[in-house]
Structure to design on (727 residues):
């Protein structure tokens, strides 16, 4: 029962967070000076039409851009809930349809990088902790620092350049021409997935390696490990059965931040590598003041981060009974 | 280690000492006394100096910032100089020996031909050397916005240039599309790239202290509201939010205003994490007896926060601030790279890297990637310095 009430409480909290996020998103997209009608009028004048003050006023009333901020916000929110996310002025398409086009690949890339991040980080972190201050540990620490220091987009450019040097043509885009139809095109798709995966997962993996390694080193010092070792339990069992449990916490609790990091990385990487994800669409939308589209994308990415945090909180409560106790004692 | 030390300390009592050894011992005692009476900050400084990587990083950063302050003087070219003749010119080779005779540092001019893709090919014309002089006159600049001058540290002696010929330049890192010296532009760009993070961090530090402090000190409903706001802001992936906020910077405003807007955006997005740290520190410190004593003595809340609570975790906060700077450097570089940050005529490392967006540009002119080295150095140096500070922040360990 109390488990249920904890989940309900967490869900309610997430709901309020989302509500406030939607407000912030709407505030941010309304920030640029001028509105959509202004850019439309500029276009019309550029095409040689004569526009009078009354026309502009009419347009404003038609698109509802002259109403008070809160009214517009409530209207926008109503649309979000009922599935009408507005029209993208730039693409002349429903925002929801436009986002839907790229959401699949965005989620695919995010999921692949998330899995790869964990697959790279956990074994390396354990290896580094077990071989502290040995050559392997130093190498990984060095790579980790460089991974944190080089900006995503530069790594993407460098790898693209290397792929061009080695294979003769740069690995850009995601899907081969004509889509995935047979085995060969699927292999081509996998090849093109390599660079974005490396680039996006690197900085997240570096951060994760640092925190897991530190946690693991702390754990190794604890008396129970010494005791277990003294009793003759094998190193393998100590590592994988006992010490591994301690690192579950940083792994799970970092999920929300990890998803946020992946969105950071994938946005700019996708722009450089011309991947069909939300990054380039967001940039275009922001450049052309396509407020509903940029708002929609911001809302979606923030929502996914909130969901990630929610999942990690719930998982933690299941994995670590102390957290539930803490909640109850409040 | 400590046992050995003790043994050494004890040893003199057992044996007879001569004058020299006594003096040595006295010195050692004075040193120890100094150690036990020195303040926490002095201890931190001592420990930091022993962290080699942090010291090297600190020196590197000092050099970078000196370069930024005196950019106008060190850079041979000014911000607005360009030369269509030398577009995409490779880094100049500096020679010392002309026709078997040593004449000091000089460069050769280029003979320019075109390849089949209409790219310029630069070949050195070894007929006439152009000497590199020190303290030459060039375009005027201001140091720190006050001292005006037109003397540059080094430059090519163009006094006997043939009529109608473009000036010969020394370009240590090559030139960009518009024939601007990359070395000069990196230095001038560092004035933006290295100060935006500092100013931004300082602003988010102020915000974090005030908001996190209120949240932790007063607790209750204020705390709940502030915590929710922090949660909302940190739910956004920073880069898309940065992009959206930068897109709101109006077009056609002055460079200074763009700079201010960018620093404000940087700090607006990054204060929540810091505020959380400040809050948790406040929560643990406000229950201390000395705070209660101050309260009973009638000290105002504001004074308690500033005088008694903040110093308690200042060192911890400085570590966090230092470790936050690299993210801001990367953020500013990314924004400028996307064209949403600094705009022409101003420049920054991100703006310089914009030319690297096309792969052919990198393939033909790999020197255009040099700004990456500067970004990487600055980021790594701040990271190592932060690590060193973190170790030093707890000097009693």
């Amino acid at each position: 029962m109390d488990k249920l009430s904890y989940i309900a409480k967490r869900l309610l909290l997430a709901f309020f967070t989302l509500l406030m996020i939607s407000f912030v998103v709407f505030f941010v997209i309304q920030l640029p000076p001028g509105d959509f009608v202004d850019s439309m009028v500029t276009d019309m004048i550029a095409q040689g039409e004569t526009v009078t003050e009354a026309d502009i006023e009419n347009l404003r009333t038609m698109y509802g851009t002259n109403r008070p901020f809160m009214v517009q916000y409530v209207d926008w929110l109503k649309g979000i809930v009922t599935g009408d996310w507005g029209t993208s002025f730039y693409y002349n398409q429903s925002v929801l349809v436009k986002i839907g086009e790229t959401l699949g690949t965005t989620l695919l890339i995010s999921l692949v990088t998330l899995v790869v991040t964990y697959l790279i980080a956990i074994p390396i972190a354990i290896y580094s902790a077990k071989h502290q201050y040995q050559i392997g540990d130093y190498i990984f620490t060095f790579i980790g620092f460089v991974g944190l220091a080089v900006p995503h987009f530069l790594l993407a450019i460098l790898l693209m350049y290397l792929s061009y040097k080695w294979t003769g043509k740069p690995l850009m885009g995601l899907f081969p021409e004509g889509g995935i139809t047979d085995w060969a095109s699927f292999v081509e798709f996998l090849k093109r997935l390599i660079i974005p995966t490396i680039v996006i997962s690197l900085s997240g993996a570096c951060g994760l390696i640092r925190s897991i390694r530190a946690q693991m080193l702390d754990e190794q010092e604890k008396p129970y490990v010494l005791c277990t070792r003294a009793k003759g339990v094998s190193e393998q069992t100590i590592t994988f059965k006992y010490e591994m449990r301690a690192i579950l916490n940083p792994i799970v609790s970092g999920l929300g931040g990890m998803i946020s990091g992946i969105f950071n990385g994938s946005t700019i990487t996708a722009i450089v590598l011309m991947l069909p994800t939300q990054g380039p669409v967001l940039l275009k939308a922001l450049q052309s003041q396509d407020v509903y589209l940029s708002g929609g994308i911001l809302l979606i990415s923030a929502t996914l981060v909130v969901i990630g945090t929610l999942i990690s909180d719930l998982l933690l409560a299941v994995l670590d009974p102390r957290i539930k106790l803490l909640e109850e004692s409040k | 280690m400590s046992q050995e030390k003790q043994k050494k300390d004890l040893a003199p009592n057992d044996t007879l000492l001569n004058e020299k050894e006594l003096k040595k011992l006295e010195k050692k005692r004075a040193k120890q006394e100094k150690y036990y009476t020195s303040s926490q900050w002095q201890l931190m400084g001592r420990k930091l100096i022993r962290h080699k990587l942090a010291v090297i990083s600190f020196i590197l950063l000092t050099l970078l910032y000196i370069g930024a302050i005196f950019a106008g003087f060190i850079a041979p070219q000014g911000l607005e100089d360009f030369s269509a003749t030398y577009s995409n010119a490779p880094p100049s080779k500096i020679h010392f020996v002309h026709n078997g005779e040593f004449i000091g540092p000089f460069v050769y001019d280029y003979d320019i031909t075109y390849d089949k893709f209409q790219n310029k090919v630069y070949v050195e014309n070894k007929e006439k050397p152009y000497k590199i002089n020190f303290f030459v006159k060039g375009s005027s600049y201001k140091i720190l916005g006050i001292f005006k001058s037109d003397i540059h540290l080094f430059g090519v002696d163009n006094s006997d240039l043939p009529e109608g010929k473009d000036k010969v330049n020394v370009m240590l890192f090559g030139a960009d599309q518009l024939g601007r010296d990359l070395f000069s532009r990196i230095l001038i760009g560092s004035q933006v790239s290295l100060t935006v993070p500092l100013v931004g961090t300082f602003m988010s530090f102020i915000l974090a202290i005030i908001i996190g402090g209120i949240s932790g000190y007063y607790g209750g409903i204020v705390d709940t509201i502030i915590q929710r706001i922090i949660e909302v802001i940190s739910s956004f992936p920073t880069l898309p939010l940065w992009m959206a906020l930068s897109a709101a910077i109006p077009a056609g405003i002055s460079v200074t205003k763009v700079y201010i807007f960018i620093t404000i955006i940087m700090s607006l997005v990054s204060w929540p994490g810091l505020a959380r740290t400040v809050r948790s520190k406040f929560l643990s410190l406000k229950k201390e007896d000395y705070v209660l004593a101050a309260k009973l003595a009638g000290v105002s809340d504001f004074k308690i926060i500033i005088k008694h609570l903040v110093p308690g975790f200042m060192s911890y906060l400085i570590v966090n601030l230092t470790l936050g700077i690299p993210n801001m450097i990367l953020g500013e570089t990314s924004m400028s790279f996307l064209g949403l940050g600094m705009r022409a005529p101003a420049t920054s490392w991100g703006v310089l890297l914009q030319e690297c967006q096309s792969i052919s540009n990198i393939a033909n002119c790999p020197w255009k990637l040099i700004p990456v080295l500067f970004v990487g150095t600055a980021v790594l140096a701040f990271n190592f310095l932060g690590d060193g500070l973190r170790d030093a922040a707890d000097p009693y360990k």
